[in-house]
């Protein structure tokens, strides 16, 4: 103990990781399209991230519609039938993908600077003139059905979908972004085209570019490229979040041949623009977001219950969740959950002292710069900042906000944002083995994993 | 700031040794008196650095009874040594703003530390302590056994492919230790003893059995001083680690394996024995793998996925120390049988053997290699891992800088020749994973 204290004291002085957002330019074209341009000259590559307000929150009852629409952009365009598009992109070693998350539809791409005269027109066509080829659409639907059926053979892959649906119910954040076999089967190409017309507009959309370019030249190029993309009628409004559960509940999803249980424990979280997000991140680091976190220490190191456990805040525009995820053998399911709940309680019973806070602060500062090392990471950051209305202080004040935390402010953050009861639990596994015991966590409902949907 | 790469045209890039500005000599190296070789690449783009230690030991060095021990040992390296007891490795590292990880493969065990450059000395101190004086506390062994058992269980529970992979290895290899997967047999995980770990540590964790790459906001002189202070006093353990003498004999006839599992549609895997990374055919096989399955314009995608025989199809080929496998894997679309899938895969194999590939296909995958290189050197992690793997697999990190030339030399005739040489019926193993059908 003496040795480690001595070491810790030595480590404190001179610790500095003040990472600032590199210079970038933001402009809005007459059609409402926002461009964010950041030069980074390490390698002769461009990274592009396009964000559109066209995520799964707009699916309604047609789960998977937003994602299928985003994927359909790549099924060919007016000038590039799918096979030609794939062939040309692959030939250049370029990457281009389109998909939707809950809140945003995204196009991401990376390619060599020398190929930009070829790739930019393809990106533009994909966004502005998709052909919605019927046969490609049917083929994708058919593959998606197999993928979605397969997903239920991988409980870790569907745990989040079960939890979100259990927590948010039929509200927009409860939509499974990839859909379900039942919902995908019913989606028609006309519905996709209609979704595209409603949600894919230049106004509300951001094109972020990071890489080896000259800003003035890139500005001119993209202004010309996107000038004929017609402005839409209205910006899409994000759906509001209504009530969320206030009583403890348990969902047991039975998978008869399971040898382990996939576990998710959660409660109300915070929206993306929460002013205390830095403090929340630091506290969560102590609880469950690094290797020496309390959860890893107890569930993995001290007890050997699991290979992995972590806690996180899933922040969205209008709200969010706090969740713990882990897995363990069927026979250690209940002890592992008990321990996890006890560990969350320690935030209140034990709290975070000076020494532990110093460690967590050093850790989050030390690991901050590598999060924004590549053009793709930076392009994604710019798109996220635009999507959630975050300004430069989100990055530039990070270190100062970490430094400003003290034991008292951390105590306030725990009491304001970290749950201590009314947990929502989702367990996927051989539920007969712990059905009775699970009742102590709250009102139990049950499903078979084969039952359609989540 | 990191030196910038030129914006050359592709043809030019392929015609000269790569990366005229990041030169092989930018990677500096020195060897300690105990035989540990240290490589340093200064890169000041962010105030962080990485230390990657590549140990020349993996599941290839195991035997039955202690399968999976290399991977288990990797876990135990975080569980306490003499100066820093249980949990302190991570506690001290994280207090200093660093984090770490590790991975084990058939051929090597790699420890990775990611930290603010100010923590460099602490990292040396921590690594030296566990390399010299690992404790192997019996209580920690038992707790970690549960962790690795959970890793084993969750891997199988959530991945039908992993179950098929394990069965394939056990059939494709009859004598070489590549026959078990890196995580090992469940019965060995549950039964290996502390003395197995102690012997293993004495045998393989000698400084001359490791190479270290340090990349980032550091100075060579500082690295050298710290390496001499912390790593050099660690003694070399004699004798040298035993050489793996097992050679997989030539396969004489097709082998088949069936695994039953409740999956919505069947999986098929076909694997051929192929040579190690240092064999001259490596580059042609690697490019062939990309021609077959990289991207939606690839052969397997167009022939199997686009035609709705398979929902996915891919090949797998990677560098290895000893001869390993080139494999094809696909999952059937709804309603398609394993036989249909196998026939479709074999038709693609035959096509390459009989008619080869086109110049355009070859040029395409060479272009993809160029972009891969750019992507692999965008981060400190990418540089450390890529250079270290080249040093281990190809015997010299400089092979990374000449790889463009090695790929450029491959011709369409080479591709067809390697396909003919290795894609023979007698050299293949076929595996099917599906619901029980009778």
Automatic annotation (TrEMBL), chain A:
Residues 187-362 form the Peptidase M16 C-terminal domain. One of its GO terms (molecular function) is metal ion binding. Residues 42-176 form the Peptidase M16 N-terminal domain. Pfam families: Peptidase_M16, Peptidase_M16_C. Signal peptide: none annotated. It comes from the Bacteria. SUPFAM superfamilies: LuxS/MPP-like metallohydrolase (SSF63411). This is Peptidase M16. It comes from Siphonobacter curvatus. The lineage of its organism: Bacteria, Pseudomonadati, Bacteroidota, Cytophagia, Cytophagales.
Automatic annotation (TrEMBL), chain B:
The keyword Signal applies. It comes from Siphonobacter curvatus. Residues 192-368 form the Peptidase M16 C-terminal domain. Keywords: Signal. The lineage of its organism: Bacteria, Pseudomonadati, Bacteroidota, Cytophagia, Cytophagales. PANTHER family: METALLOPROTEASE (PTHR11851), MITOCHONDRIAL-PROCESSING PEPTIDASE SUBUNIT ALPHA (PTHR11851:SF49). Transmembrane segments: none annotated. Residues 1-20 form the signal peptide. GO terms for molecular function: metal ion binding. This is Peptidase M16.
């Amino acid at each position: 103990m003496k040795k480690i204290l001595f070491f810790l004291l030595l480590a404190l002085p001179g610790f500095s990781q003040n990472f600032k957002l590199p210079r970038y330019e933001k402009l809005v074209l007459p059609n409402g399209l926002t461009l964010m341009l950041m030069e980074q000259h390490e390698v002769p590559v461009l990274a592009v991230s396009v964000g559109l307000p066209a995520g799964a929150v707009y699916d309604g009852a047609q789960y998977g519609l937003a994602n299928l629409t985003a994927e359909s952009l790549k099924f060919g365009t007016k000038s590039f039938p799918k096979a030609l598009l794939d062939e040309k992109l692959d030939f250049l070693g370029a990457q281009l993908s389109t998909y939707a998350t809950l809140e945003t539809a995204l196009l991401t791409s990376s390619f060599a600077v020398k190929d930009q005269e070829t790739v930019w027109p393809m990106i533009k066509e994909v966004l502005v003139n998709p052909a919605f080829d019927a046969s490609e659409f049917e083929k994708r639907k058919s593959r998606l059905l197999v993928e979605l059926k397969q997903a239920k053979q991988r409980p870790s892959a569907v745990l989040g979908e079960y939890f979100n649906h259990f927590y948010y119910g039929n509200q927009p954040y409860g939509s499974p972004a990839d859909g379900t076999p039942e919902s995908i089967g019913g989606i028609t190409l006309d519905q996709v085209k209609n979704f595209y017309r409603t949600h894919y507009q230049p106004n509300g959309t951001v094109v972020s570019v990071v890489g080896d370019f000259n800003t003035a030249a890139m500005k001119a190029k993209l202004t010309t490229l996107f000038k004929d993309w017609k402005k839409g009628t209205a910006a899409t409004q994000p759906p509001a979040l209504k009530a969320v559960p206030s009583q403890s509940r348990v969902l047991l999803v039975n998978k008869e041949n399971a040898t382990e249980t996939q576990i998710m424990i959660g409660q109300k979280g915070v929206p993306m623009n929460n002013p205390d997000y830095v403090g929340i991140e630091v506290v969560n680091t102590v609880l469950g977001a690094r290797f020496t976190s309390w959860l890893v220490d107890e569930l993995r190191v001290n007890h050997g219950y699991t290979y992995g456990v972590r806690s996180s805040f899933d922040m969205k525009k209008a709200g969010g969740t706090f969740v713990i995820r882990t897995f363990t053998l069927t026979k250690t399911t209940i002890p592992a959950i008990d321990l996890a709940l006890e560990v969350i309680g320690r935030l209140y019973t034990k709290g975070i002292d000076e020494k532990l806070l110093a460690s967590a602060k050093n850790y989050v500062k030390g690991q901050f710069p590598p999060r924004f090392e590549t053009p793709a990471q930076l392009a994604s950051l710019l798109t996220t900042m635009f999507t959630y209305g975050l300004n430069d202080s989100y990055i530039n004040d990070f270190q100062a906000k970490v430094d400003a935390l003290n034991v008292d402010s951390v105590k306030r953050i725990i009491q304001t944002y970290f749950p201590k009861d009314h947990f929502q639990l989702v367990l996927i596994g051989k539920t007969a083995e712990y059905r009775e015991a699970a009742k102590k966590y709250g009102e139990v409902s049950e499903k078979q994993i084969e039952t359609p949907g989540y | 700031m990191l030196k910038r790469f030129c914006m050359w045209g592709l043809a030019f890039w392929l015609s000269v040794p790569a990366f005229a500005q990041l030169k092989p000599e930018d990677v500096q190296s020195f060897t300690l008196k105990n035989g540990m070789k240290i490589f340093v690449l200064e890169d000041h783009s962010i105030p962080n650095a990485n230390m990657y230690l590549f140990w020349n030991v993996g599941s290839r060095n195991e035997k039955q009874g202690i399968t999976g021990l290399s991977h288990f040992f990797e876990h135990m390296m975080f569980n306490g040594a003499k100066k820093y007891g249980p949990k302190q490795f991570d506690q001290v590292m994280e207090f200093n703003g660093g984090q770490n990880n590790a991975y084990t493969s058939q051929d090597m065990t790699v420890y990775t530390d990611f930290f603010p450059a100010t923590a460099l000395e602490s990292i040396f101190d921590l690594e030296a302590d566990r390399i010299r004086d690992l404790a192997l506390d019996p209580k920690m062994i038992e707790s970690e056994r549960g962790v690795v058992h959970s890793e084993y269980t969750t891997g199988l529970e959530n991945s039908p492919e992993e179950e098929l992979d394990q069965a394939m290895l056990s059939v494709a290899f009859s004598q070489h230790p590549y026959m078990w997967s890196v995580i090992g047999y469940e019965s060995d995980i549950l039964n290996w003893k502390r003395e197995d770990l102690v012997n293993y540590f004495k045998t393989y964790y000698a400084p001359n059995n490791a190479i270290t790459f340090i990349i980032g906001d550091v100075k060579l002189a500082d690295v050298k001083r710290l390496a001499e202070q912390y790593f050099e006093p660690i003694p070399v353990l004699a004798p040298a680690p035993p050489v793996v003498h097992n050679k997989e004999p030539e396969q004489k006839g097709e082998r088949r394996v069936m695994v039953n599992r409740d999956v919505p549609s069947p999986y098929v895997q076909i694997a051929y024995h192929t040579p190690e990374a240092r064999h001259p055919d490596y580059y042609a096989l690697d490019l062939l793998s990309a021609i077959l399955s990289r991207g939606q314009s690839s052969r397997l995608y167009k022939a199997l996925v686009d035609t709705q025989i398979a929902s996915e199809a891919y090949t797998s080929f990677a560098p290895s120390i000893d001869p390993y496998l080139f494999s094809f894997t696909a999952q059937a679309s709804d309603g398609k049988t394993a036989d249909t899938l196998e026939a479709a895969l074999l038709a693609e194999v035959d096509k390459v053997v009989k008619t080869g590939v086109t110049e355009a296909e070859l040029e395409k995958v060479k272009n993809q290699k160029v972009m891969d290189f750019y992507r692999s050197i965008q981060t400190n992690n990418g540089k450390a891992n890529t250079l270290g793997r080249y040093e281990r697999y190809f015997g010299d990190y400089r092979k990374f800088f000449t790889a463009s030339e090695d790929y450029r030399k491959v011709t369409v005739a080479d591709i067809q020749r390697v396909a003919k040489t290795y894609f023979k019926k007698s050299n293949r193993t076929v595996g099917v994973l599906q619901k029980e059908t009778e």
